């Protein structure tokens, strides 16, 4: 079986045959044109060596294939290079887009950081303005007092005519409660009126230190990316609070004097309490942090609108008792300890005038006898008022004396009786003094005291005085010019007939 020729061999043979045919044709045409000689006998064509020709053709075919392979390889390389360029271009475009996206993200983040920084700066500035506004409002408590309070005088006078002392107290109390003070600076107010003494009793609920901002301002800290408060020094915070309490007290005094006519109110007694919780017990307490008794004439000399006015020194000059540490709610003893809701003031009439001849103290109406005792203390230099007829804890009057040394508050109890006063009455008065925080107590009677009562009084000589019937009779004659009788059925031990006649 003959060997099958390969493709290069077949291509070589076909190429050889084609070349031989062309060569033969060319030779025939050339011979006919250039050599018109007699026709010779054709020679046998030259036959090349088949093996050599085959080798030559094989080499030519391989060369042709090599050229075609080279062309294909070159084309493939060109295509590959073009693809590589395209891939590189796409990669460059992708990288460019990535860089642009990253740059956009960075730009957005930078914008957001700058915007946040600006917002925090603005927030710090706004909060600083808010703190400054609160402080300015607290500083202006005394400066921004309400105007036109004198227009209330007719209303106060009508309230006195129709409602008596309670009517006056209600009008002033309503004004104090509705006064436009900063929020939290005056939570409540209670007022009592003593017409016979021309006194207004005012109790105001003052704020705790929480009403004063504990920060001086705010600042933006870039490293931390937040707004940080700037704390006020504790000493400065306490001083601001003390000045606020002084301003509030002066403002309450100004409103109380301004809203009432001069002929009705000559003195204002003011106590300022702070509603808080006792940390030791958890119970609600009302420590008194400022107390004063101020005459209208003394208050009228003040210039409250003067920017350089020191409210604390002003209170001290008015004789006020001020807590040294109000921030710690350290209480002070009130100059006059009163509860307007509990000690309502009732209208009083003079009793000395109608007494004709020699009045018999035992025959007097009990309430008339109490009024006579109060008039006696008034003549002795005290400012007096009587307590409400009910729930008075046994007290019939409160007497106050002011002198350069200080203020003395006396709780007075009057006993119109023909029998000896029992020691229990004396001890009960001592307990009432403790409850009312009064400096002294005076028990006045038309009769006498036993040995036990006098011993109790001697043991409490700094706080308790006993006035029996004969001493009362002498005091009435000395200070009121009243020569009274005491119609006892028998003389007490140690008394003389002249002590009752």
From TrEMBL:
Spans annotated as Disordered: 23-52
Superkingdom assignment: Bacteria
Tagged with keyword Coiled coil: yes
TM region(s), chain numbering: none
Residue runs in coiled coils: 67-141
Restriction endonuclease type IV Mrr domain sequence ranges: 362-476
Assigned keywords, A-Z: Coiled coil
Record carries keyword Protein transport: no
A Pfam family hit: Mrr_cat
Sequence ranges of Low complexity compositional bias: 23-32
PANTHER family: MRR RESTRICTION SYSTEM PROTEIN, TYPE IV METHYL-DIRECTED RESTRICTION ENZYME ECOKMRR
Name of the molecule in the record: Restriction endonuclease type IV Mrr domain-containing protein
Gene source species: Kitasatospora nipponensis
């Amino acid at each position: 079986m003959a060997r099958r020729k390969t493709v290069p061999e077949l291509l070589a043979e076909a190429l050889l045959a084609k070349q031989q045919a062309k060569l033969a044709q060319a030779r025939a045409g050339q011979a006919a044109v250039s050599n018109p000689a007699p026709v010779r006998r054709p020679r046998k064509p030259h036959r090349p060596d088949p093996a050599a020709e085959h080798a030559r053709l094989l080499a030519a075919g391989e060369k042709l294939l090599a050229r075609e392979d080279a062309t294909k390889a070159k084309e493939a390389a060109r295509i590959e290079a073009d693809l590589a360029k395209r891939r590189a271009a796409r990669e460059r475009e992708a990288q460019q887009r990535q860089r642009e996206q990253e740059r956009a993200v960075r730009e957005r983040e930078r914008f957001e950081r700058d915007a946040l920084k600006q917002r925090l700066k603005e927030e710090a500035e706004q909060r600083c303005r808010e703190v400054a506004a609160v402080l300015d409002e607290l500083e202006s408590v005394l400066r921004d007092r309400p105007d036109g309070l004198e227009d209330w005088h007719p209303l106060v006078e009508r309230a006195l005519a129709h409602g008596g002392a309670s009517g006056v107290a209600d009008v002033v109390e309503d004004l104090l409660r509705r006064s436009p003070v900063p929020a939290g600076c005056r939570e409540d107010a209670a007022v009592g009126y003593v017409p016979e003494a021309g006194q207004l009793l005012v109790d105001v609920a003052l704020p705790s230190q929480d009403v004063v901002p504990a920060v001086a301002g705010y600042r933006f800290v870039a490293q931390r990316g937040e707004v940080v408060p700037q704390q006020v020094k504790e000493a400065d915070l306490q001083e601001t609070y003390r000045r606020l309490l002084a301003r509030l007290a002066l403002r309450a005094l100004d409103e109380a004097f301004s809203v009432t006519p001069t002929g009705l109110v000559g003195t204002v007694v003011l106590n300022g309490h702070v509603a808080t919780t006792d940390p030791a017990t958890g119970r609600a307490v009302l420590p008194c942090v400022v107390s004063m008794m101020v005459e209208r004439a003394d208050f009228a000399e003040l210039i409250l609108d003067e920017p350089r006015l020191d409210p604390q020194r002003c209170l001290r000059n008015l004789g006020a008792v001020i807590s040294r540490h109000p921030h710690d709610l350290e209480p002070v003893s009130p100059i006059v300890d009163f509860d307007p809701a509990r000690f309502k003031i009732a209208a009083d009439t003079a009793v000395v005038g109608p007494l004709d001849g020699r009045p018999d103290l035992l025959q007097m109406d009990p309430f008339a006898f109490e009024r006579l005792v109060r008039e006696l203390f008034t003549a002795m230099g005290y400012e007096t008022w009587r307590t409400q007829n009910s729930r008075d804890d046994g007290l019939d009057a409160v007497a106050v004396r002011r002198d350069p040394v200080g203020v003395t508050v006396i709780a007075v109890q009057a006993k119109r009786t023909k029998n000896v006063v029992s020691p229990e009455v004396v001890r009960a008065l001592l307990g009432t003094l403790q409850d009312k925080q009064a400096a002294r107590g005076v028990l006045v009677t038309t009769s006498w005291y036993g040995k036990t009562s006098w011993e109790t009084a001697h043991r409490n000589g700094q706080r308790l005085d006993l006035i029996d019937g004969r001493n009362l009779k002498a005091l009435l004659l000395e200070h009121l010019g009243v020569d009274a009788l005491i119609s006892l059925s028998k003389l007490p031990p140690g008394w003389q007939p002249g002590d009752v006649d």
